[in-house]
Amino acid sequence: MSNNTKIAVRTASSTYEVEIGSDLLPHIGARVDSLLNGGLCAGKQRVFVVTSPEIWKLHGERLASGFPSAPVLLSVPAGEQHKRLATVERLAEEMAQHGADRDSVLLAFGGGVIGDMTGFLAAMYMRGIRYVQVPTTLLAQVDSSIGGKTGVNLAAGKNLAGAFHHPLAVYADTSILSTLPPAELRAGLQESVKAGIIRDRALFDFLDTESAAVLRGDRDALTRVVADSVRVKADVVSADERELGLRMILNLGHTLGHAIEAATQYKQLLHGEAIAWGMIAATGIAAHRNLITADEAAQIERVVRAYGPLRSFTANATELVALTAKDKKNRSGARSFVLPLGIGDATVVRDVSEAELLEAAEAMMSEVNSLQVTA
Ligand SMILES: NC(=O)c1ccc[n+]([C@@H]2O[C@H](COP(=O)([O-])OP(=O)(O)OC[C@H]3O[C@@H](n4cnc5c(N)ncnc54)[C@H](O)[C@@H]3O)[C@@H](O)[C@H]2O)c1
Ligand SMILES: O=C(O)C(=O)C[C@@H](O)[C@H](O)[C@H](O)COP(=O)(O)O
Ligand SMILES: [Zn+2]
User: Fold this and answer.
1) Where does NAD(+) bind (predicted)?
2) Which ligand 1 atom is the nearest neighbour of the CA of 233?
3) Relative to the CA of 14, which of 224, 294, 305, 309 has its CA 20 to 30 Å away?
């Protein structure tokens, strides 16, 4: 426990810590009780844990063992297709039936899907209650549990309904990652590759040279990747909480990635897999514009593919470009697009034309379609 890493997120609206360690689960109850000034032990406040049956079965006992009394469980099925308003409404009704009040605290115990929905539930239940993030996937530990972006998907597009609402704290227990399916680990690592590309050359190089250790789940390698990725996210969010400028760089690969997810009804690719395609397309656009050297563009593509495989999906380029019109970064009709300038640096441009985007989407779909033929 003494070797735990603590990284602060400091925004205008709140300050909180991300604690990363390898045996945190049984200690989270005490941490939360202390954040609530003893309110749990005194029986004054109640904790509602949002989780899935699979995650609870694997790790619930270790989490529950640290709480003075058993938390109320709110269950959601696994899968991105459940990240919808209907699920959040059902959870809010269950909370009300259990007598949750404004002093109740939600705890998100799952991956990004559960984290995003729990944060949104916390933002809207009785107009806002507190919540804690206990991320159980690599993706959630390195990215989604931090920064207060909460929400759900609409049929019209990804994350189109939501709110900014920060957690009280984030507890990332890296030992939980040992049960994560390899495909989920790989997909989550794409967000760390993204963090390296936009802001941290050393992290990118580590992911490049140590990919074998990282992919076999070596504890030390993963702990370093989690801590370095969290530092990138915490720094960016602390500088621009509401995504008015700098924070948009966290969206590298997401404009086309989100379009892929919406076009495939959130069922064919994992989030990290979709943004991997998006990062390759964005790097292609940057290379065409001579914003990045051919050598660095090739390195990015190689590392993204190392954390693949990039899997095929069913969509067409025109449809994908049309879906990017719903991107939340677009303002007053102008498209915003994140491009890498090199390894460790990225920018937002506002002049990517529809034709340029279509060309990149067509190049991507030609590879996707060739994968379908050979599969
Ligand atoms: N809010 C943000 O800033 C932000 C950032 C990045 C991504 N996201 C969102 O996060 C979501 C993706 O999150 P994800 O990749 O964690 O997927 P996920 O939440 O769907 O979890 C992936 C799968 O892993 C299982 N699982 C979780 N923990 C496990 C464990 N320890 N052992 C075994 N199985 C486990 C889950 O049951 C699920 O089937 C997307 O909706 C994406 O939009 C949000
Ligand atoms: O925190 C952010 O800001 C991000 O963009 C992180 C992304 O990895 C994440 O997928 C996020 O949910 C995307 O948000 P959105 O606002 O583009 O829907
Ligand atoms: Zn993402």
Assistant:
1) 112-116, 136-137, 149, 158
2) 3
3) 224
Residues having CB within 6 Å of any atom of ligand 1: 52, 54-55, 58, 78, 80, 83, 110-114, 116, 136-137, 139-140, 143-144, 147, 149, 159, 176, 179-180, 184, 187-188, 191, 270-271
pLDDT digits (tens, 9 = 90+) for 19-53: 999 999 999 999 999 999 998 998 889 999 999 99
- Please tell me the distance from the alpha carbon of residue 235 to that of residue 72, in angstroms, as a whole number: 34
ipTM over 0.95: yes
Concerning whether 296 is annotated as a catalytic residue, the answer is no
> Which CATH number is 331's domain given?
1.20.1090.10
Has 191 been annotated as catalytic?
Answer: yes
Q: At what angle do helices 182-199 and 201-209 cross, to 10 degrees?
A: 140
Q: Which amino acid is at 185?
A: L
> Are 230 and 364 in a shared domain?
yes
Q: Are residues 336 and 189 in the same domain?
A: yes
Residues tagged in the binding site annotation: 112-116, 136-137, 149, 158, 191, 254, 271
- Closest C-alpha among 243, 239, 289, 261 to residue 158: 261
User: Domain boundary residue among 139, 161, 179?
Assistant: 179
Active site residue 247: yes
Ligand 2 centroid from CA 265, angstroms: 18
Do residues 6 and 19 make contact, with C-beta atoms less than 8 angstroms apart? yes
Supply the pTM of this predicted model. 0.97
**Residues 137 and 251 grouped into a single domain:** no
How many domains are contained in the chain? 2
Angle between the 201-209 and 294-306 helix axes, to the nearest 10 degrees?
Answer: 50
